[in-house]
Every structure is written in C-alpha cells, then in structure tokens.
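ok trying this again, last paste got cut off
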Amino acid sequence: MFRHRGKNRTLKHNLKLASLLSGVAGIVNVTGVFALKQLTTNVTGHFAFFADEVGRRNFETAWGYLLFILAFLFGAIVSAGLLEAMLRRNKRLVFLPPVGLEILVLVGVGLLNLEFIMQHRIWVACCLLFAMGLQNALVTRVSNAVVRTTHLTGLFTDLGIEIAQLYFYRKEEQQKKLKDSMKLRLTIISFFFLGCIVGGSLYSAFVMKTLLLAAAILTTALVYDSAKYRMMKLKRKFARP
C-alpha cells in the first residue's frame, strides 16, 4: 500500500491507499468542523476568508486564517523532507516517519480536554491542518500524484471530465483507463463521505477522542503493511532453490 512506488504501483495499491486515507481525512474533517467550526483538511476556503478579513481590516482574524494556510503548507514541507531523508537512508521505511508523525498529532489532539481546545481553537486547528498537510504530501508522493485524499473539489472536476470522455473515447484501452480512473476517484469520494458519517456519529459521544479512530486506522495500516512485507520476504526466502 505505502511501499510500492513509481512503476510498481497498481490500481489495487492506489485503491487501498485511497480508501484508507480518505476515510481518515473524512473523520478529521467532520471533527474539525464540529469542534472548531473550521475546515481542517484543506485550505481553499481559508484563502477566501483571509482575503475577506483583510478587506474588512480585521487583521487579527485574518492572521488566524493565514496560520491555517501556513500550517497545511508546513505539514507538506515536513512530510516531503522526511520522505527525501528516508529515501537516502532506508527506502523500505520511507513512509514511516510522516505517517508516524501524523498519528502522534492526531492522538495528541484527540486527548486534549475540551476546555483547552475552546481556549486555543486556532492552534488546535493548525495542528489538524498540519497533519493533513503531512498526509496529502505523503499520498501525493507515494502515488505519483494519482491519489489525493484531503479535499474533493478537484476530484469532482476530474470525475466530470472523465464521465464526458467516456462518450468520445471508444477504444477498449481508453475505456479501461477512464473507468479505472473513475473507480479510484469514486472510491476516494465514497470513503471521505463514509469517514465524515462515522466521525459525525461518534462525535456526539467522544468529541475530540473521535480522532483516535483516525489514528487507529493509520496504525492498523502500518501494521498491515509491515506484516505483508514480512510475509512476502518469507515466501521469497522459501521459494529459493
């Protein structure tokens, strides 16, 4: 799921990655909206709010929106830096530092008490945006920019284009490529919505601890990836004459 990069990646790898991480993003998204009244998985809306507050000369509020944007950017920078550093040290574990850091951030925020969160909403939102910046950069790099899991605007645009192209591109190879791409995009959209629904359902009972589910999903993915890799090594070992 995480280990296969470049030409080694298949549609199956991308579908697994997409379903897992878009579900995590959905949980983070709905938790951020309910608890903080802020979008915590993308920065598109924050640019509009930032410009609006600057226009109104509400510079203190505008500063908060600028922090959101920078937090997401910083997450992407840190994720890319960790990936590059690990590529030069241990390619087998290249994905571990950014995923591990994302888990730590989600667990840390999930264990904060509600009073602290209400007093420091901007900084808590920045932590979640940082985590989503980590995730978005990781999945973009691992999948060669095929999978994006933290926002849906571009996905719906691409999906609309591909639906239209089905009518015009009739060759079997073209149809297969389009349908595979549509399947991937629909998977991301579906699991993002599923994450939102599950996260929203749990929020009333667990509040910010809902983020622990997102962290648990990521942890399970790491364990699964590691176990699968070990199994493959054992199979190759015993397959040798």
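PB: full thing came through this time. Residues 15 and 183 are 8 Å apart (CA to CA).
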